[in-house]
Design goal:
342 residues; six-stranded mixed sheet; six-stranded parallel sheet; single chain; alpha/beta; elongated
Length: 342
């Protein structure tokens, strides 16, 4: 077989570039100490020959695997049905791909999967982990810390185990909720209800706090119903609200999916939106917010950018040429997007 018919080797690249094998190895593996003209010759030879580094051999040199685990603490039925996760994964994937890293997706169907995930992370298969959609009683943070894997969390941590240096990315959930409810009050609505998310997640708890910041702690407790960030949950919560408080004139739902369920129930009950009941959601996921009837007024958070920043912070921690200094928490701003529902 000719050299071009078989997989190019480091030796072939070195011969084409006119340098030593060690020089090619340093360039390919991101090492220092090679003059720029030689670096360009090696890169040109790599491109001409179509050389692809052997990942196993490369890992022995760099102590890196070029792979990052993305751990979503939800069952796959929820992950693949909710566009929130697709947007966040898209942002993560774009950033990892730009830095020549692979994404390894790990889902947790139940408690038995937590030890499996921790064992995989501790086994040296990936360089770090991005973890999101955690619940307050979730053991994953402690298990991941025990695995000793650099980690960035999506969402404000809700656990208090005395650990420091936790890096996370979140949106201004409380501030966004305040803006949503102020908008409804500014429209003259006096009976503003809230359909919460799952209150064992900090995003839902923060949005409930933002609602209470505006309506006050003395507001009618019947106007708050806990849900679970799903369309079905929004439907159930809206029916309960109409039974409890038929005179309500506005609803702030903790996310767009719950708002879409609430809109369906209001339509079934002959309530006009926004004339009889104004509705505001949270997320601004365009396929949902623009597809409801009427189109949904909602609080926009940049979900894809959250994913990109999570990946960027983790890669910064993994870069041996940089510093391990990263902000403990990055909180992105939110904005109200006005459409026809309120």
């Amino acid at each position: 077989m000719t050299e071009t018919a078989q997989r190019p080797t480091l030796e072939a690249v070195a011969a084409r570039a006119g340098v030593s094998r060690a020089t090619v190895s340093r360039v390919v593996n991101g090492g220092d100490g090679v003059r720029e003209p030689l670096v360009e010759r090696v890169r040109r030879a790599v491109e001409e020959l179509g050389y692809v580094p052997n990942q196993a051999a490369r890992s022995l040199v760099t102590k890196r695997h070029g792979a990052v685990a993305v751990v979503i603490a939800e069952p796959e039925t929820r992950v693949f049905a909710d566009p929130f996760f697709a947007l966040q994964l898209r942002g993560i994937s774009k950033e990892l791909t730009a830095q020549d890293n692979q994404l390894v997706l790990l889902l947790t169907e139940g408690r038995d999967d937590h030890t499996r995930v921790a064992r995989y992370l501790a086994g040296g298969h990936v360089d770090g982990a991005l973890v999101f959609s955690l619940h307050l009683d979730d053991p994953l943070p402690g298990l991941i810390q025990g695995a000793g894997v650099p980690t960035v969390f999506g969402g404000r941590p809700g656990w208090s185990d005395g650990s420091s240096g936790v890096v996370y990315v979140d949106s201004d959930n409380r501030g966004g909720a305040r803006e949503a409810v102020r908008h409804l009050v500014g429209l003259g609505r006096t009976r503003v209800a809230h359909i919460t998310g799952a209150l064992d997640q900090t995003s839902a708890a923060d949005r409930l706090d933002g609602y209470r910041d505006v309506v006050g702690e003395a507001a009618d407790p019947r106007l708050v119903v806990e849900s679970d960030f799903t369309p079905g949950g929004g439907e159930r919560a809206m029916r309960e609200l109409l039974d409890r408080c038929p005179d309500l004139d506005a609803v702030f739902a903790a996310n767009d999916l719950a708002a879409s369920g609430a809109l369906r129930v209001l339509r079934e009950h002959g309530r006009r939106v926004p004339e009889d009941v104004a509705v505001v959601g949270f997320d601004d996921m365009l396929p949902v917010a623009e597809g409801t009837d009427p189109p949904l007024t909602t609080v926009r958070q940049d979900i894809e950018e959250m994913g990109r920043i999570m990946a960027r912070l983790l890669l910064r921690r993994l870069d041996p040429r940089g510093t391990d200094e990263a902000p403990a928490g990055v909180v992105l701003p939110t904005t109200l997007v006005r459409r026809a529902s309120a």
